[in-house]
From TrEMBL:
<feature type="transmembrane region" description="Helical">
    <location>
        <begin position="265"/>
        <end position="285"/>
    </location>
</feature>
<feature type="transmembrane region" description="Helical">
    <location>
        <begin position="16"/>
        <end position="36"/>
    </location>
</feature>
<keyword id="KW-0012">Acyltransferase</keyword>
<keyword id="KW-0812">Transmembrane</keyword>
<dbReference type="InterPro" id="IPR052734">
    <property type="entry name" value="Nod_factor_acetyltransferase"/>
</dbReference>
<keyword id="KW-1133">Transmembrane helix</keyword>
<feature type="domain" description="Acyltransferase 3">
    <location>
        <begin position="9"/>
        <end position="345"/>
    </location>
</feature>
<feature type="transmembrane region" description="Helical">
    <location>
        <begin position="134"/>
        <end position="152"/>
    </location>
</feature>
<feature type="transmembrane region" description="Helical">
    <location>
        <begin position="173"/>
        <end position="190"/>
    </location>
</feature>
<keyword id="KW-0472">Membrane</keyword>
<feature type="transmembrane region" description="Helical">
    <location>
        <begin position="233"/>
        <end position="253"/>
    </location>
</feature>
<keyword id="KW-0808">Transferase</keyword>
<dbReference type="Pfam" id="PF01757">
    <property type="entry name" value="Acyl_transf_3"/>
</dbReference>
<protein>
    <submittedName>
        <fullName>Acyltransferase family protein</fullName>
    </submittedName>
</protein>
<dbReference type="InterPro" id="IPR002656">
    <property type="entry name" value="Acyl_transf_3_dom"/>
</dbReference>
<feature type="transmembrane region" description="Helical">
    <location>
        <begin position="325"/>
        <end position="349"/>
    </location>
</feature>
<dbReference type="GO" id="GO:0016747">
    <property type="term" value="F:acyltransferase activity, transferring groups other than amino-acyl groups"/>
</dbReference>
Length: 363
C-alpha cells in the first residue's frame, strides 16, 4: 500500500506538469499535421513550455538518484530505461509497418524494418523515427551512467599547489560543475562545426546540468528553501519574471536536436528559472493528495512511450471537435484523455508484464 501522507507531493505534481506540457506541445504539432488550426495562445504555450518541460524530468531524476557504482547503475537502469525504450520502439516500428503495409512488398518490409530500427537506435532522424518521444529514456540512461562514473571517480576534494607555499582545495562539487560546463562547451563547438552526434549523447550532455542540480538540491537540503509557502509566492513571481524574459529573448534548448536556439546563456537561465518556478508552485499545493496525480506521476515514462500513438489516434477520432470550441479547451481535454488512457494501459502492462515498462515484478 502507498502511504500518501509520506510522499513528497511536489515531485508528483512537478512530473505531472512536465508530462502534461510534453503531451500538449506534441499535440500542437499533431494538430498542424492534421490541418487543425490553433490560436496564438497555443503558440505561446508551445514556446514557453519548451523552456522547462524536459529539464523538470532531469531535475527530478537527479533529486531521486541515490549514489551507486557504475556497474550497478548500468544493470539497474538498463532494466528500468533501456528495456522499455526498445519495447515502445518496437511497438512504433510495428505500427509504422502496418501503416504502409499496402505499399511495401516482402523485401521492402525487411529493408524498412531495419531502417526504422537503426533510426530508433541512432536517434537522429525525426522523419523515420518510429517513436520520437522515447529518446528521453535513452538520454536519461546515459545521464545516470555518466554521472555515476564522474561521481564515483572524483574524490571529495583535491589539493592543487600553485606555488611552493600556496595551495588551494577544490571541492568535489566544483569539479563536477567544471566537467559539466566543459562537456557543454565541447558540444557547442561540435554544433558550431555541424558535427552530428548519435545515440542522444548530446541530449544527455545538456541534461546532465539539470540532473546534477536536482542531485545537489537533495544532497544539500536546498529544497528546504521552498517549504515556506509565503516565500514560495515570492519565488513564484521572481522565477516567472525571469522565465518570461528568457521567453522574450526567443532562447531555448532543443534537447532532441542537442542544440540551443537564441542565446545559450539565456536558454539555460530560462530552463533553470522554469524548474524553480515549478518547484515553488508545486510546493505551495504539496499538501493536496491526489491519487490520479500519483498514478500519472509514477507512469510518466510509460506515457512517453504511448503518447505518440494515442495523440494521433485521439486527434483523428475526435477530428478537432473540442478545438472548434476553443483551442486551449481542446488541448486540455485531449491531453487528459491521453493521460487517462496511458495510465489505464500502464496499469494493465504493470499487472502482467511489468518488466516491459521498467518496473520490477511484484513478489
Amino acid at each position: 500500500m502507498v502511504n500518501y501522507n509520506k510522499r513528497e507531493w511536489w515531485i508528483d505534481y512537478s512530473k505531472f506538469i512536465a508530462i502534461f506540457l510534453i503531451v500538449v506541445i506534441h499535440l500542437i504539432y499533431t494538430f498542424t499535421t492534421f490541418g487543425i488550426k490553433t490560436g496564438y495562445e497555443t503558440q505561446m504555450i508551445l514556446k514557453f513550455g519548451y523552456l522547462f518541460h524536459v529539464p523538470i524530468f532531469y531535475f527530478v531524476s537527479g533529486y531521486l538518484y541515490k549514489d551507486i557504482l557504475p556497474k550497478i547503475a548500468i544493470k539497474k537502469y538498463f532494466k528500468r530505461l533501456i528495456v522499455p525504450f526498445f519495447f515502445f520502439g518496437l511497438i512504433g516500428i510495428i505500427l509504422t509497418l502496418l501503416t504502409y503495409i499496402n505499399y511495401l512488398n516482402n523485401k521492402n518490409i525487411i529493408f524498412y524494418f531495419f531502417k526504422l530500427l537503426f533510426t530508433l537506435i541512432l536517434q537522429k532522424s525525426s522523419i523515420y523515427n518510429p517513436n520520437g518521444t522515447i529518446w528521453f529514456l535513452l538520454a536519461l540512461f546515459e545521464v545516470i551512467i555518466f554521472f555515476s562514473l564522474i561521481n564515483s571517480k572524483i574524490k571529495n576534494s583535491y589539493s592543487v599547489k600553485l606555488k611552493e607555499f600556496f595551495s588551494i582545495k577544490i571541492k568535489k562539487e566544483i569539479l563536477i560543475i567544471f566537467i559539466i560546463i566543459l562537456l557543454n562547451l565541447i558540444l557547442f563547438i561540435l554544433n558550431y562545426f555541424h558535427i552530428t552526434i548519435f545515440f542522444c549523447v548530446d541530449a544527455a550532455i545538456i541534461g546532465l546540468s539539470f540532473f546534477y542540480t536536482g542531485y545537489l538540491f537533495k544532497a544539500k537540503g536546498m529544497i528546504d528553501y521552498f517549504k515556506n509557502k509565503k516565500k514560495n509566492v515570492l519565488f513564484l513571481v521572481l522565477f516567472l519574471i525571469i522565465a518570461l524574459l528568457s521567453y522574450a529573448s526567443h532562447s531555448s534548448i532543443k534537447f532532441y536536436a542537442g542544440k540551443w536556439t537564441g542565446n545559450l546563456i539565456f536558454a539555460y537561465i530560462g530552463s533553470f528559472s522554469g524548474i524553480f518556478l515549478v518547484v515553488a508552485f508545486t510546493n505551495i499545493i504539496s499538501n493536496i493528495n491526489n491519487k490520479l496525480i500519483y498514478l500519472i506521476s509514477i507512469n510518466t515514462l510509460t506515457i512517453m512511450g504511448l503518447e505518440k500513438f494515442l495523440r494521433r489516434g485521439v486527434t483523428f477520432a475526435l477530428n478537432g471537435i473540442f478545438i472548434k470550441i476553443h483551442p486551449l479547451i481542446g488541448l486540455c481535454v485531449i491531453t487528459f484523455l491521453i493521460l487517462l488512457i496511458s495510465v489505464f494501459v500502464a496499469t494493465l502492462i504493470n499487472k502482467f508484464y511489468p518488466n516491459l515498462i521498467g518496473n520490477p515484478p511484484n513478489k
